[in-house]
Amino acid sequence: MSRRRLMRGAAAAAALGMGKVPLAHATSARRPKLTLAGPFALVSYPLMRIADSGALSDVAEKVEFSTWKSPDQLRAMAIGGAVDLMAMPSNVAANLYNRGVPLKLLDITTWGLLWMVSREKGLRTLADFRGKEVVMPFRGDMPDILFRLLAEKQGLQVGSDIKLRYVASPIDAMQLLITRRADHALLAEPAVSMGLRKTHSFPVKVIAPELYRSVDLQQEWGRVFKRPPRIAQAGVAALKGVQGDAPLLARFEAEHAKALQWCQDNPEQCGAMAARHVEMLTPEGVTDALAATRSTMIWVDAARARPDLEFFYQQLLQRQPGLVGGKLPDAAFYG
Questions:
Q1: Nearest to residue 309, comparing CAs of 45, 78, 95, 101?
Q2: Per-residue pLDDT tens digits for 159-193
Q3: CA–CA gap between residue 169 and residue 222 (Å, rounded)
Q4: Can you say whether the dihedral through the CA atoms of 58, 107, 117, 162 is positive or negative?
Q5: Which of 80, 98, 113, 260 could share a disulfide with 189, CB 3.0–4.6 Å?
Q6: Which helix (H) or strand (E) holds 35?
Q7: pTM for this entry
Q8: Domain 114-225 carries which CATH code?
Q9: What is the CATH number of domain 3-112+230-333?
Q10: Burial readout 93-115 (b: 16 or more C-beta within 10 A, e: otherwise)
Q11: Tens digit of pLDDT for each residue in 38-61?
């Protein structure tokens, strides 16, 4: 990563008022192993880059990346102590912290990845889905939370005005769309880009409907709440084994910011890397997803992201306090 590219990333973040790229500090004693984890979504690709590039070889003899595949597995890994640094939804980090799990949120890098995907053209807001059924992955987690919050803010009753059909994963949701067993779904990148590519390729196009990227939930957030169109959706938390190691965390954050910029500057290479780590991903789908989310994938340290996080948490507390552990996290949460 050249200094020029890194500074360009810092300038982009500053233009949005969202933070500065961190400086590296002297490291603590070198560890035998450092374990990173995250979902197959874009929030994890900088972590994959860190593991593959050897960027933290001065910190640990071995750096590994592993994938969590469900919210339950995420929580089990966070509590179990086998992972050091983990990408996760911001509300899950707050929930775990408020329930006594030793962690601190280091940053937010995902400011919105959610879109409605539909077989029907011309749907521009969630109000346009009145009377329709929407397929929803991960019941009770981030996509479901945000959809309900934005729908209710517009006076829509989920269950009567809009029906939800829950499925286990984004892949299940996309399969229902592709095989004409559903017309609308809420999906996160890269599942959106992968699905759109898949339905325009032979032989799937023979049976699959034309699909359209319709409502951008980030834009809905800005419109409904009269705020910038960004949601403090996900970032990286430091867990028990490393949360007190300030030099290590400073090194990680410096490399994390650089790795995110590398992914954006090298989308084809990043796509190939992600596909090596996660079998269900395709290089082309990841490349498309990186292009679609360039304005919403920005590294911001947790302290500077705190106002956006607390606004988001307040919305959740008003509706389902348990989603963030019943209260706003205190200052120690923001690493």
A1: 95
A2: 999 999 999 888 899 889 988 999 999 998 888 89
A3: 27
A4: positive
A5: 113
A6: strand 31-38
A7: 0.86
A8: 3.40.190.10
A9: 3.40.190.10
A10: bbbbbbeebebbbbbbbbbbbbb
A11: 998 899 999 999 999 999 999 999
